[in-house]
């Protein structure tokens, strides 16, 4: 009907071609010409209008073997086209037998496989015609009805997928796809080899034509292929999972799942029956199968089409999520590793994913926790900003303190990358970026010491990176943006708390001795000369070994670091030495630092790559890469124009610890102090000028106009500016006259000065008393009389109108001028003593001062026991008295005089006021670290064991641990071990000591605290020896204290023996000789007294029994230590208020809010050696064993003379009746707990 409509009534058209194409003697050219003519005519015939009877001759001849097997490509190409036309014209019936059809189709695909190439190839148009005919006419479906059709289909699919790889025209790909789709649709049963051929294409690159063809075919035949694909995967899994669990079998399963993932990306409709199968795999017992399925589904869910997959298969999604609790860590790990895509692509399921990640941050396995942290490092800024909560970022920050190194590294790296990505927006003051990304920065800078190495790396790479040096190495004139570099530091500090800011300052490398250990290492390398040493070879080598040992302790692997540092010294490259010297030089600017650092590391990498890691860390710690002299101009401008608090903090810190950075900038500082309206800028400039003037005489201020301005500041009412101005005057050439003039003027005005001016004048006098003693002494009688009588000795009663009348501390900003002046007056007294330390009149000057300071300690900050001074004034005064005594103790002759009041000074660390305790420790530690104080001062940190505040005790532990590890073995003996007997003596004199059982239990905690930090298998014999020696001497003051000492001796011996037994330490007799300190101990009068003491047991029976029971129940080493707990996630809630002391001890009350202070109270005095050892009693040591019965005649009865002596000693007990008064005060404050908690 259709043909008639198109052709009208025209008669069927017959084939005009009537020549023979088969026969002998037919030349190839002639045959080719005939076939071409035949093809042309057949191509023009219409299927509906052709007389098929006219085709019978050519139809038969075309399948002749002489044609199908002809050697000429052209003959076969045209013959194939003619056959395709014959099939088209005869459709839907084929005019051939099954055998002939099989030969024809094999002929077709053989021609296409061998002949169809690029458009430039011979007979390309004929091959194109053949392919088009098969595609459009669909005659290829006849294959499905042939015998052994499966074999032919396999060949067709294999040939076509091979053919399509030839990068042919897009239209040819479409024709091939149509043919393959038709075959799949018409076949009764799809051969497995065909499916394997199709599936194999998905494992290729997804840009390949074969991959594209497979995708087209599968998407077009998805309904029919679903069942086959499911069966295909089932066969693979069943075949390999039930065999031996060799890796090769699982590799096949893994490949099958890779194929599933590819199908999910391109042909998801094929997987309708496969996804439920994967769901079942999640439940199997075989770990490898579960692992592979979890990974595959995770990657599928995390891709762009994952949301649709979750929606279509919700049960599979839920079962997959349950793998978060899988018993195998590797499965949980694979689950977590897919989370990046989930966070990015599953918009509607982010809460679920977020909860999953939050839980896995606390997973028992470190690899899982590390993987969670790593996922967030891979996210972009926008994703984190909009889809990752601030709580989650804080949780990741919490992993920065994880006990496992791998987790810490990933957590810190993640936060570092996120911050680096967000910094441009933070710099632009984007509120969302600031709110989201600035909350976790403190974590970088407050990592505990064991974790600091990773934090330093992250800070260097992401938080404070050096400007890019890619072009620095190739160009001499490189523009490094110093302003942006400095502003990044200031911006970052703006979002840190006080702890974070302090950590940045420490990390900057500004603070430290000069030359630094790193500079000493470089000097030692130069002197070592690669091992070729001309003189003092042993000395040079020992110096190099010592400095390497010191530096390597700071590395994660000290042994590897030491080997690498030795290896660098052996290279002996002058160029490397020169570059390293440039990097270490404080005068190197930012551009020079970047250039020298890059070249240095490049040379190391090329010459000794194995030491590159160590030298990179070395360079990072040794150089001023966070702030250096290039920062100064920008910092000054930020103080001047933006009133930047942190710029002022940095400049103040530089002034205190590294004023050499100011050398190129003195003119800018001089200009800064001229801006008198900007008080903060003037203060910073004055402090900087004072510091640089004192550090380098050539840079002292001598300009007349500037000195006149400085003199005005000296006489001004701003105490800090006046203090720095006084230091500048002292450093000038005309300091004698200028200082004398200032002292004269102050002496005249002091008595009538207003409070603020009085504070400023006293601050100036404190400087002159120390730095210009000659000028001060001209008016010392007048000045000291006023300061002592009119200022220090004047009572300071509490304000009756003040609501918080029981508060015992006042913050720096709230200190009243009068109290500030009194504190400074104590500094004047202290500095005057220090200025005269080397003179013959030193003790004459210092004695009244020492007496006054000791009185303040004895009377809790007042000059008399019955004074009614304000508690806030008293706490400040006794703190300053204690600090002053510390600074005076650096002078040997003063230390000897102070020794009689050492116990009163030491128990300041147990003051009732938290701030006094903490400030005292903070002033003590630097002096101890620099070894300016006698070794006995190392006892003070051990008195913090009962402190109610954890941070006081933790700081003490940190100091003792660090100090004891970073000194030589000999120094450790002097600083921490020999002083053990002094600790026993101190506890015997402690105001809270008594022979009651409960009290001795408390005293035992001091001993255990000391032993926890110091005792080891190497020194336990020495400590035990010292404890026994305490019963072979008597106390230097009284018989009462001697009995206390003997009780402590027995208690300590038992504690040491129990510890040694629990830890399997060998407690042998100490082979050496020890001199006991003669300043506190005396020899016994005769052997009889010694024998009596050794036989007497001074511990109560209850205590002896307690010790015996404790020794039986004490756990062995390794189990006695408290298990370290994982750090909890940070919480939004505010930290609870500090606890009150729960017992009546002289450790005091809770701490109150404390502001950061940058004013260090340092002493310029150098340490002088002192010896306090006495001759040892050579009697044989006899351990004392507790007994339930005392020996006859040793019941503790005393003569009347001894009893009177004991009563007298009770009155002479040190420390302002500390054992009673402190307890009463604590009890009183505990009752007011609520009030203090609100104010803390």
TrEMBL record:
<keyword id="KW-0131">Cell cycle</keyword>
<keyword id="KW-0539">Nucleus</keyword>
<feature type="compositionally biased region" description="Basic and acidic residues">
    <location>
        <begin position="1120"/>
        <end position="1135"/>
    </location>
</feature>
<dbReference type="InterPro" id="IPR011989">
    <property type="entry name" value="ARM-like"/>
</dbReference>
<protein>
    <submittedName>
        <fullName>Armadillo-type protein</fullName>
    </submittedName>
</protein>
<dbReference type="Pfam" id="PF20168">
    <property type="entry name" value="PDS5"/>
</dbReference>
<dbReference type="InterPro" id="IPR016024">
    <property type="entry name" value="ARM-type_fold"/>
</dbReference>
<dbReference type="GO" id="GO:0000785">
    <property type="term" value="C:chromatin"/>
</dbReference>
<feature type="coiled-coil region">
    <location>
        <begin position="28"/>
        <end position="55"/>
    </location>
</feature>
<feature type="compositionally biased region" description="Basic and acidic residues">
    <location>
        <begin position="1181"/>
        <end position="1193"/>
    </location>
</feature>
<keyword id="KW-0175">Coiled coil</keyword>
<feature type="compositionally biased region" description="Basic and acidic residues">
    <location>
        <begin position="1203"/>
        <end position="1212"/>
    </location>
</feature>
<feature type="compositionally biased region" description="Basic residues">
    <location>
        <begin position="1136"/>
        <end position="1155"/>
    </location>
</feature>
<feature type="compositionally biased region" description="Basic residues">
    <location>
        <begin position="1213"/>
        <end position="1240"/>
    </location>
</feature>
<dbReference type="InterPro" id="IPR039776">
    <property type="entry name" value="Pds5"/>
</dbReference>
<dbReference type="GO" id="GO:0051301">
    <property type="term" value="P:cell division"/>
</dbReference>
<feature type="compositionally biased region" description="Acidic residues">
    <location>
        <begin position="1163"/>
        <end position="1180"/>
    </location>
</feature>
<keyword id="KW-0132">Cell division</keyword>
<dbReference type="GO" id="GO:0005634">
    <property type="term" value="C:nucleus"/>
</dbReference>
<keyword id="KW-0498">Mitosis</keyword>
<dbReference type="GO" id="GO:0006281">
    <property type="term" value="P:DNA repair"/>
</dbReference>
<dbReference type="GO" id="GO:0007064">
    <property type="term" value="P:mitotic sister chromatid cohesion"/>
</dbReference>
<feature type="region of interest" description="Disordered">
    <location>
        <begin position="1109"/>
        <end position="1240"/>
    </location>
</feature>
């Amino acid at each position: 009907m259709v043909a008639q409509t198109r052709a009208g009534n025209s008669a069927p058209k017959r084939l005009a071609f009537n020549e023979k194409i088969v026969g002998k003697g037919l030349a190839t050219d002639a045959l080719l010409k005939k076939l071409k003519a035949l093809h042309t005519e057949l191509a023009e015939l219409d299927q509906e209008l052709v007389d098929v009877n006219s085709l019978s001759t050519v139809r038969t001849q075309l399948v002749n073997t002489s044609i199908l097997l002809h050697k000429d490509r052209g003959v076969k190409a045209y013959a194939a086209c003619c056959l395709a036309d014959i099939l088209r014209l005869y459709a839907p019936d084929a005019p051939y037998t099954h055998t002939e059809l099989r030969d024809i189709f094999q002929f077709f695909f053989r021609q296409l496989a061998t002949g169809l190439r690029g458009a430039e190839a011979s007979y390309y148009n004929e091959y194109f015609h053949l392919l088009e005919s098969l595609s459009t006419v669909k005659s290829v479906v006849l294959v499905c009805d042939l015998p052994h059709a499966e074999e032919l289909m396999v060949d067709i699919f294999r040939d076509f997928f091979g053919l399509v790889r030839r990068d042919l025209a897009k239209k040819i790909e479409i024709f091939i796809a149509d043919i393959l789709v038709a075959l799949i649709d018409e076949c009764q049963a799809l051969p497995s080899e065909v499916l394997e051929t199709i599936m194999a294409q998905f494992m290729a690159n997804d840009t390949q034509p074969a991959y594209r063809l497979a995708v087209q075919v599968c998407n077009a035949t998805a309904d029919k292929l679903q069942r086959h694909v499911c069966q295909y995967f089932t066969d693979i899994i069943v075949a390999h999972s039930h065999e031996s669990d060799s890796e090769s079998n699982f590799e096949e399963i893994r490949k099958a799942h890779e194929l599933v993932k590819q199908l999910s990306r391109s042909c998801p409709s094929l997987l309708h029956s496969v996804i439920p199968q994967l769901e079942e795999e999640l439940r199997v017992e075989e770990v490898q199968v579960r692992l592979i399925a979890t990974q595959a589904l995770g990657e599928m869910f995390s891709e762009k089409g994952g949301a649709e997959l979750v929606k279509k298969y919700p049960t599979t999604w839920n079962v997959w999520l349950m793998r978060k609790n899988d018993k195998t860590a590797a499965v949980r790990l694979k689950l977590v590793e897919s989370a990046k895509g989930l966070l990015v692509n599953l918009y509607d399921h982010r809460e679920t994913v977020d909860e999953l990640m939050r839980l896995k941050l606390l997973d028992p396995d470190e690899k899982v926790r590390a993987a969670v942290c790593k996922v967030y490092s891979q996210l972009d800024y926008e994703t984190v900003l909009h889809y990752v909560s601030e709580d989650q970022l804080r949780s990741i920050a919490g992993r920065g303190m994880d006990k496992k190194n791998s987790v810490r590294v990933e957590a810190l790296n993640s936060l570092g990358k996120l911050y680096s990505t967000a910094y441009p927006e933070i710099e632009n003051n984007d509120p969302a970026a600031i709110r989201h990304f600035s909350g976790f920065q403190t974590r970088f800078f407050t990592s505990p010491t064991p974790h600091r190495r990773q934090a330093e790396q992250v800070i260097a790479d992401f938080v404070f990176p050096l400007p890019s040096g890619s072009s620095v190495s190739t160009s001499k004139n490189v523009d490094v943006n110093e302003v942006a570099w400095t502003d990044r530091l200031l911006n970052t500090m703006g979002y840190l708390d006080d702890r974070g800011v302090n950590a940045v300052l420490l990390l900057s490398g500004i603070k430290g001795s000069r030359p630094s250990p790193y500079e000493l290492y470089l000097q030692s390398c130069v002197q070592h000369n690669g091992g070729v040493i001309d003189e003092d070879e042993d000395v040079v080598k020992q110096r190099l070994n010592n400095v390497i040992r010191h530096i390597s302790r700071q590395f994660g692997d000290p042994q590897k670091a030491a080997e690498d540092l030795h290896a660098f010294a052996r290279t002996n490259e002058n160029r490397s030495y020169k570059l390293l010297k440039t990097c270490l030089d404080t005068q190197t600017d930012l551009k020079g630092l970047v250039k020298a650092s890059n070249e240095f590391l490049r040379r190391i990498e090329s010459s000794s790559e194995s030491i590159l890691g160590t030298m990179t860390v070395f360079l990072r710690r040794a150089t001023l890469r966070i702030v250096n002299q290039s920062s100064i101009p920008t910092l000054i401008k930020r103080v001047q124009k933006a009133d930047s608090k942190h710029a002022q903090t940095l400049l103040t810190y530089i002034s205190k610890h590294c004023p050499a950075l100011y050398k190129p900038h003195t003119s800018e500082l001089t200009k800064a102090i001229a801006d008198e309206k900007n008080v903060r800028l003037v203060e910073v400039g004055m402090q900087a000028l004072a510091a640089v003037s004192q550090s380098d005489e050539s840079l002292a201020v001598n300009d007349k106009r500037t000195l006149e301005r400085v003199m005005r500041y000296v006489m001004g009412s701003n105490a800090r500016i006046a203090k720095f101005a006084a230091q500048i005057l002292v450093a000038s050439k005309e300091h004698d006259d200028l200082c004398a003039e200032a002292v004269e003027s102050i002496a005249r005005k002091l008595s009538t000065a207003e409070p603020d001016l009085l504070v400023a004048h006293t601050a100036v006098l404190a400087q002159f008393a120390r730095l210009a003693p000659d000028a001060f002494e001209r008016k010392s009688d007048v000045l000291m009389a006023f300061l002592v009588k009119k200022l220090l000795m004047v009572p300071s009663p509490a304000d009756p109108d003040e609501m918080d009348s029981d508060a015992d501390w006042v913050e720096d900003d709230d200190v009243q001028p009068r109290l500030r002046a009194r504190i400074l007056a104590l500094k004047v007294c202290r500095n005057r003593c220090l200025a005269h330390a080397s003179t013959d009149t030193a003790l004459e000057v210092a004695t009244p001062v020492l007496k006054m300071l000791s009185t303040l300690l004895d009377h809790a900050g007042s000059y008399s026991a019955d004074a009614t001074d304000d508690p806030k004034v008293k706490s400040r005064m006794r703190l300053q008295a204690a600090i002053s005594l510390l600074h005076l103790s650096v002078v040997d002759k003063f230390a000897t005089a102070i020794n009689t009041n050492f116990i009163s000074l030491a128990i300041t660390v147990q003051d009732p006021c938290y701030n006094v305790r903490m400030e005292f420790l903070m002033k003590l530690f630097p002096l101890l670290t620099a070894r300016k104080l006698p070794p006995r001062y190392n006892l003070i940190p051990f008195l913090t064991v009962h402190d109610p505040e954890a941070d006081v005790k933790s700081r003490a532990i940190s100091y003792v641990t660090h100090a004891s590890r970073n000194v030589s073995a000999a120094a450790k003996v002097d600083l921490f071990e020999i002083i053990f007997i002094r600790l026993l003596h101190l506890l015997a004199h402690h105001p809270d000591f008594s022979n009651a059982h409960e009290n001795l239990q408390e005293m035992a905690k001091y001993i255990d605290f000391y032993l926890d930090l110091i005792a080891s298998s190497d020194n336990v014999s020495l400590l035990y020896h010292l404890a026994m020696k305490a019963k072979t001497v008597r106390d230097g003051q009284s018989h009462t204290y001697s009995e206390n000492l003997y009780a402590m001796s027995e208690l300590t011996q038992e504690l040491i023996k129990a510890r040694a037994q629990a830890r399997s330490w060998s407690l042998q007799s100490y082979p050496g000789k020890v001199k006991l300190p003669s300043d506190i101990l005396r020899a016994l009068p005769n052997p009889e007294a010694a024998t009596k003491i050794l036989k007497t047991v001074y511990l109560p029976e209850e205590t002896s029994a307690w010790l015996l029971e404790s020794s039986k129940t004490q756990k062995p080493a390794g189990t006695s230590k408290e298990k370290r707990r994982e750090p909890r996630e940070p919480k939004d809630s505010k930290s609870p208020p500090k606890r009150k002391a729960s017992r009546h001890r002289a450790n005091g009350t809770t701490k109150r809010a404390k502001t950061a202070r940058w004013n260090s109270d340092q002493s310029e005095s150098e340490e002088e050696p002192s010896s306090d050892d006495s001759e040892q009693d050579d009697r044989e040591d006899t351990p004392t064993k507790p007994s339930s019965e005392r020996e006859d005649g040793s019941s503790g009865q005393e003569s009347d003379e001894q009893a009177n002596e004991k009563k007298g000693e009770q009155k002479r007990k040190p420390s302002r009746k500390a054992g009673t008064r402190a307890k009463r005060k604590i009890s009183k404050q505990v009752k007011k707990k609520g009030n203090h908690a609100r104010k803390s």
